[in-house]
Write a structure and sequence with these properties.
3-stranded antiparallel beta sheet, 4 helices, 25% helix, 34% strand, disordered N terminus
Length: 153
C-alpha cells in the first residue's frame, strides 16, 4: 500500500512541464562527481536569447560567425579560470578533459548549450575528504544550479 502514494507522486512530478530558463539569464548547470581518485566538474552552459550576444562576443573573438578550435579552447580556459575547487581546504587544479559547443545560431536562439568537463585529482592518504566548489563565471547574468553525485566508494 505504501508504494501507490509514492508512485503517484513520482508520476505527478514526472508529468509536470519542464521548466524553461529565462531569456535574460545564462544558466550554468553543474554536476559534481566524486570518486576516491578524481573529482569531475561537468558544466552545461546555456545562454538565453537576450544574453547570447554578450556570450557570443566572448566566444567568437574574430567575429567571423564560426567557432574555431582555438576560440572554443580559449572560452573553456576562461570558464576554468572562473571556477574554484578545494579538497581538504587546498585549492586543486582543474584540467579540461572534454568540451562540446553548439552552432552559434542555436545559442543566438537561446536553445544551444556548451558542455565542459573538468577533472581534478583527489589527494591520496585520507579516508574522508571535504570538498568546496565555487563558480564565478559571468555572475552579472549567471544563474547557477549544482548537483552532486554520491560516490560509490
Amino acid at each position: 500500500m505504501m508504494r501507490l502514494p509514492l508512485l503517484g507522486l513520482l508520476i505527478t512530478v514526472g508529468a509536470s512541464p519542464a521548466a524553461a530558463h529565462g531569456i535574460d539569464e545564462y544558466v550554468q548547470g553543474t554536476l559534481v562527481g566524486v570518486s576516491a581518485e578524481t573529482v569531475v566538474i561537468a558544466l552545461q552552459l546555456t545562454p538565453g536569447q537576450e544574453v547570447a550576444p554578450a556570450i557570443l562576443a566572448l566566444l567568437d573573438a574574430d567575429r567571423d560567425g564560426a567557432l574555431s578550435a582555438a576560440e572554443e579552447g580559449a572560452y573553456a580556459d576562461r570558464v576554468r579560470g572562473d571556477l574554484w575547487l578545494a579538497i581538504d581546504g587546498r585549492p586543486r587544479e582543474l584540467r579540461l578533459v572534454s568540451s562540446s559547443f553548439p552552432p552559434l545560431e542555436a545559442m543566438r536562439e537561446g536553445v544551444g548549450y556548451m558542455m565542459l568537463r573538468f577533472e581534478a585529482d583527489v589527494p591520496a592518504g585520507a579516508a574522508t575528504h571535504s570538498l568546496a566548489f565555487q563558480n564565478l563565471h559571468q555572475p552579472d547574468i549567471g544563474v547557477y544550479l549544482v548537483n552532486a553525485l554520491a560516490p560509490s566508494d
